[in-house]
Design goal:
By secondary structure, the protein is of the alpha/beta class. Helix 4 crosses helix 7 and helix 10 packs across helix 12.
């Protein structure tokens, strides 16, 4: 199977280690309900995992929860609750939503707050090796100590600096340097060799990925919006710490828009998974998320969702007919030909759009046999 690698900018053969594919996908920050954009990313990697498993690979799948973040803390203050109450509420909500979307749970769902020790150890190593330094406000990664910084987003440091969300700290050596540990007196805080505080966002995923998957694992995934700065920073700090490549293939799913507009709270157009499920149901939503290539943007429109709903009705009809064959004259379903075309599409950068087209051709063929009472038990066995 070949997958597009954002790092190398080309299709790369997915090579297993001892028939095992190790995959880390960045999860959600648990301060609010999951929306259709989250659903698209999670379903993309759920389908990839299912396909690899069907081909005989052992897949070790890790997807984290960011349960310490300013957004969580701010929501907790607003609601008069503890940050842990907010994160627990939305972790439970996450599992409920994605259970209804028939997503298989990750083998490991690590929480950032349960891996503070690993993060501190990683930061210590970066400080000791000169890749990080202490200021009055925290510990920062020294971006220019990593010569390959920018290799994922393919932009020079100067251009990245102009587009970055700069963390304001006049004591920083360079505006591009990013926080590994932020001092704070507000809960939640943890003790560290440098003072009480909490970890920066980027260090969380590095620590958890290295702990559970080691170095140079097969796939690191997430939404396209994470390429910079999150994944760029993960690479810099991880490879500076280990001296080894962090992940072989970097895979990113496209963004979801709502009627061609960016989804945002300010526009009031966020569609939660709960809302989408009520409107369309699980199977239609899964088909919709696979209706275009995973790396391309996907627009949430009634037209596209109605097309997916129609496909699901055809599939339901086909399943019914397969369970209730007739007594017609034996013919070939062509299942082998359709399966080969389906797998060819999946092997070529998980082209679910083409794979789904081939599958629907097969469904249409079976339904046409059934409509003329020509779908026999022997044909069902072949299918």
């Amino acid at each position: 199977m070949k997958l597009y690698n954002t790092l190398s900018r080309d299709l790369q053969e997915l090579a297993a280690t001892d028939n095992t594919i190790r995959m880390y996908v960045c999860g959600v920050t648990v301060y609010d309900s999951s929306h259709i954009g989250h659903a698209r990313t999670v379903i993309v990697f759920d389908v990839l995992r299912r396909y690899l498993t069907s081909k005989g690979f052992k897949v070790v799948f890790v997807q984290n929860f960011t349960d310490v973040d300013d957004k969580i803390i701010n929501r907790a203050k607003k609601e008069g609750k503890k940050a842990e109450e907010i994160s627990t509420k939305y972790i439970d909500s996450y599992f409920e939503d994605f259970g209804k979307l028939n997503v298989i749970r990750a083998d490991i769902h690590p929480k950032a707050t349960e891996h503070i020790t690993e993060m501190i150890d990683l930061i210590k190593g970066l400080v000791d090796s000169g890749h990080a330094y202490l200021t009055l406000n925290g510990v920062y990664f020294r971006v220019r100590s990593f010569p390959e910084y920018g290799k994922l987003s393919r932009k020079p440091v100067e251009e990245l600096e102009a587009g970055a969300r700069i963390e304001v700290d006049p004591a920083k050596e360079d505006p591009m340097d990013f926080a590994l540990w932020k001092f704070s007196s507000d809960e939640p805080v943890w003790d560290s060799p440098w003072g009480k505080g909490r970890p920066g966002w980027h260090i969380e995923c590095s620590a958890m990925a290295i702990k559970y998957l080691g170095n140079d694992f097969e796939i690191h995934g997430g939404g396209h919006d994470l390429v910079f700065p999150h994944h760029e920073n993960e690479i810099a700090q991880s490879e500076s710490f280990t001296g080894k490549p962090f992940a072989k293939i970097w895979m990113h799913s496209g963004m979801v828009t709502i009627n061609s507009q960016k989804m945002s709270k300010s526009l009031g157009n966020i569609v939660t998974i709960e809302q989408a499920l009520k409107s369309w149901g699980m199977n239609t939503l899964r088909l919709y998320c696979m209706s275009v290539h995973y790396a391309k943007p996907l627009d949430y429109t009634d037209e596209l969702l109605k097309e997916s709903a129609q496909k699901w009705r055809q599939i339901e009809s086909c399943v019914y007919e397969l369970r209730n064959p007739g007594q017609g004259q034996q013919a070939s379903t062509g299942s082998g030909e359709f399966l080969a075309a389906f797998e060819k599409a999946m092997e070529d950068d998980m082209n679910t759009s083409l794979a789904l087209t081939e599958f629907m051709k097969f469904v249409t063929r079976l339904n046409s046999f059934a409509a003329s009472d020509r779908l026999t038990e022997e044909m069902v066995k072949e299918a």
